[in-house]
Design brief:
By secondary structure, this protein is mainly beta. Helices cover 8% and strands 35% of the residues. The strands form 4 sheets. The protein has a 4-stranded antiparallel β-sheet with strand order 1-6-9-8. A 3-stranded antiparallel β-sheet has the order 2-11-7. The radius of gyration is 16 Å and the shape is globular. Bound molecules: 2'-deoxycytidine-5'-triphosphate.
């Protein structure tokens, strides 16, 4: 089951879903549109190492937009800060971004009950495309959970991506023990 627009509004009223900034026109029949924040980042090194902390460099998308290229992997961020306390939020692309050849996440679309923060986007493109800050880039959908949650994401000691700021956050895979 996925929450409908009226159910999303009820959860926003209760405070179990928080979306900031919130604009009524961004609410779809069963989703909420999120937008591209102004910060992008790329990894400093061409060869990444899953055991190491791979550092990133930030840059701001200018008003005239910024051209993304297929051979580069970008991290982006949602303009929206969200909190989801009772449902599982999923970040999905939009058909209109997909039709421009833009992927907004690489394998990871699921959020966790209790996640609070801006969403980091893992962006890659199929052909050069100019993107703009504030453009609609994805949509959040919300699934009810079956069963009690023992520990919510924002209460987990080892949650790697809690309280993400309005800038993309690099992979913290290096914190995993393997
Ligand atoms: N494209 C995405 C997908 C998820 N998240 C956020 C919401 C999730 O609640 C949080 C953690 O996502 P995962 O559980 O997929 O990440 P990991 O398993 O790598 O991290 P952790 O060990 O902290 O669970 O990151 C994000 O910012 N951008």
């Amino acid at each position: 089951m996925i929450l409908s627009d009226t159910r999303i509004l009820e959860e926003i009223d209760k405070g179990t879903i928080v979306i900031t900034p919130y604009r009524r026109e961004c609410l779809g029949s069963n989703s909420y549109d999120v937008h591209l924040g102004k910060w992008l980042a790329t990894y400093r090194n061409h060869i990444l190492d899953a055991k190491k902390h791979n550092e990133i460099e930030y840059f701001e998308i200018p008003d005239e937009g910024f051209v993304l290229y297929p051979h580069v992997f970008y991290l982006g961020v949602t303009e929206e800060y969200t909190e989801t306390h009772a449902h599982v939020p999923f970040l999905e692309g939009k058909s209109s971004t997909g039709r421009l050849g833009i992927d907004i996440h690489a394998t990871a679309g699921k959020g966790d009950v209790g996640f609070c923060g801006h969403w980091t986007l893992e962006i890659s493109v199929k052909q050069p495309v100019r993107i703009y800050k504030g453009m609609p880039v994805g949509q959040l959908i919300y699934f009810p959970v079956d069963g009690e949650i023992e520990i919510k994401y924002n209460q987990k000691q080892n949650a790697k991506y809690s309280r993400q700021p309005d800038r993309p956050i690099e992979s913290m895979m290096w914190k995993n023990k393997f």
